[in-house]
Amino acid sequence: MAAWWRAVRGVLLDISGVLYDSGGDGGGTPIAGSAEAVRRIKAAGLKLRFCTNETQATREEFVKKLQGLGFDISVAEVTAPAPAACRILKERGLRPHLLVHNDLVPEFAELDKANPNCVVIGDAAENFTYANLNEAFRVLIGMEKPVLISLGRGRYYKETDGLKLDVGAYMKALEYACDVEAEVVGKPAKPFFESALAEMGVPPEQAVMIGDDIVNDVGGAQQCGMRAVQVRTGKYRPCDENHPHVKPDAYVNDLAEAVDILLQQL
Amino acid sequence: MAAWWRAVRGVLLDISGVLYDSGGDGGGTPIAGSAEAVRRIKAAGLKLRFCTNETQATREEFVKKLQGLGFDISVAEVTAPAPAACRILKERGLRPHLLVHNDLVPEFAELDKANPNCVVIGDAAENFTYANLNEAFRVLIGMEKPVLISLGRGRYYKETDGLKLDVGAYMKALEYACDVEAEVVGKPAKPFFESALAEMGVPPEQAVMIGDDIVNDVGGAQQCGMRAVQVRTGKYRPCDENHPHVKPDAYVNDLAEAVDILLQQL
């Protein structure tokens, strides 16, 4: 295998499609060998951080679900868009109008939401109604300088009952209507990966991102100077291997294989 | 006034915001002097064509409404996106999946809609549900080469109960999710204006467009080599007069003033 594996001291793991496959009902199925792979990374003394664009639930909720599926994971090990957005909102004195999933609302509990001066959009799922979209639009267009913060920029994702439009599509609708550009929090935004690296205390050249999304995981991590490996699980499709702009540093069949390679080098 | 007015032999009129102001309930209020202005254009022997992006009702329905408000208008005088899209679909053997307003569906009655090979999106209003958007998306992404036809590209419009996102915003969402570019039928698309000119039998240099939308009416018509006048009624806003790209050939307070100027030159 390539020599760069030997420099790795920290591992960033995507969650959905790498640890487990999610169901539309909030359930999910672990990917074979992944729970064991997480334990092996920790036992080897490598730094580990879970780096997800999950915005349909609070960190507490989906960490509990993953623990129930057999994963050794805690809330403090997770980098997710909503808490990152909260920090940004506090720093800049922004009061959000929220267009997010009901289960994500508690993440924003501490913030003042009266007389909003920005709109925060996440994967709102069933909350993406005609009325809610018009309302978010009216709040934005009513600002002297509209501020739109988007928790990710995914195009779509797959659930057991079929493909669903992701937050990025609705972000584009609001961007066009208001002639603004959204600020994206979450993968593939550089500050999001950088904050995950800082939380691990590992420089980018000693870190590897392992994910199933060629653009948001692999492309985003490489932009930050990290190595990035694509798993052939989750939303991976064979045509990803012909992506016009992004080429992973390696492909593996699944997380277990990535950890096999990694631990051979230590 | 400028000399070009004297060359005008044909007039294209936008409807909403020029003839009348629409209410969210399907009703509306005529703009003072507009019904008389339409009669004066016809009495002077000028060619006349109504050129609208209306897609919330069939031509029959909204013409009936305008007649009820006192306008001399017939279905044969109206150029609208849905019939134009129907012609394109027939020519190209396309079977549409429709994401449009319920009241527009009859315009597509003649077309085969089984096993769709394109998606047609209009201002679907309350039909822009999360489920309907996901369904249109799945039809599109399932095609080898997705074909998306959009009845206009407006950003938003005003009704009595507030601003509403227009078809253009939802078009952008689907474009982004499927990585395609929509084909726009309706203003400001060049073929749409050209077909209105052909129906009048007037060359562009002898035609004037009168509308309230700086981009879709004024910019679109000028792209076709026509003159274009913006009325200060409907969705006109003072900041339109500082538009970075589009400058009308004239401003008028309303349609009645445009017709005053026009008839003085004959």
From TrEMBL, chains A, B:
Its cofactor is Mg(2+). Its main location: cytoplasm. It is an enzyme of class 3 (hydrolase). It is found in: Cytoplasm; Nucleus. It comes from the Eukaryota. Keywords: Cytoplasm, Hydrolase, Magnesium, Metal-binding, Nucleus. GO terms for molecular function: inorganic diphosphate phosphatase activity; metal ion binding; phosphatase activity. Belongs to the HAD-like hydrolase superfamily. Phosphatase that hydrolyzes imidodiphosphate, 3-phosphohistidine and 6-phospholysine. Has broad substrate specificity and can also hydrolyze inorganic diphosphate, but with lower efficiency. This is Phospholysine phosphohistidine inorganic pyrophosphate phosphatase.
